[in-house]
Amino acid sequence: MQLEDLPEILRDRVSSELDPGERIFWLDQPRPPAGFSWWMLAPSLFAIPWTAFTLFWIAGAVGIFDKGWAAFRQVDIQRLLFGAFGIPFLLVGLAMFFSPFWARAKRRQAARDTVYLITDQRALILNAGYMGDGLLASIAGPVAVGMVRGSFLVSSYTPARLRNIQRVQRMDGNGDVIFGETLFSTENDSEKKITRDGFFCVNEARAVEKMLRVLADQTRQ
Fold this sequence. Notes:
By secondary structure, the protein is an alpha+beta fold. The chain has helices at 8-17, 38-62, 64-67, 70-73, 77-84, 87-112, 135-145, 205-216; strands at residues 24-28, 115-119, 123-127, 153-157, 166-169, 175-185, 192-202. The strands form two sheets. A four-stranded antiparallel sheet has the order 1-2-3-4, sandwiched between helices. Helix 2 runs antiparallel to helix 5 (77-84) and helix 2 (38-62) packs antiparallel against helix 6. It starts with 7 loop residues before the first helix and ends in a 5-residue tail after the last helix.
């Protein structure tokens, strides 16, 4: 990927972060899996019995089990109002059922707005909230960046900071290259957590790791 391949807003972000004379050796964006992670599906599976029981309760409350569909022709205001108490629970069940689609869309958007670079001086991450596909990483990403649309976290790793480079390799050649940590805290600063940092879901992860090791060796020369 070249700098020109990025949308204009991302090109401007990258250009504003580079120092005068700094050259880009490698640039890419994360490519998260197209499917759903296991943790995304958990609320949807729980929503099935939740929603089924809610519908069963509403049906009993309005009198369908006693009168059948005639319960809607012979309007009983009290029973209808009683059944209406189940509507919020029904909406919660539907929200849980469709939550995987929302979570996947958020993950894809964060990945589209995130840029990874290796220059002649450092490894640079312009993170819009994507820190991998795991449950904790998906929570940490938005918290570390902030919930404001368009905000992003800039992490710069000079050769001296590239000391513990690790790679998570996948069968298709893609993978994660981990070489740092990010400290983030809750809104009231009552709790601080550390999550791994690096290039997630990038093409040719092994080649990216080699470039980082060459950059890290500059401190030994």
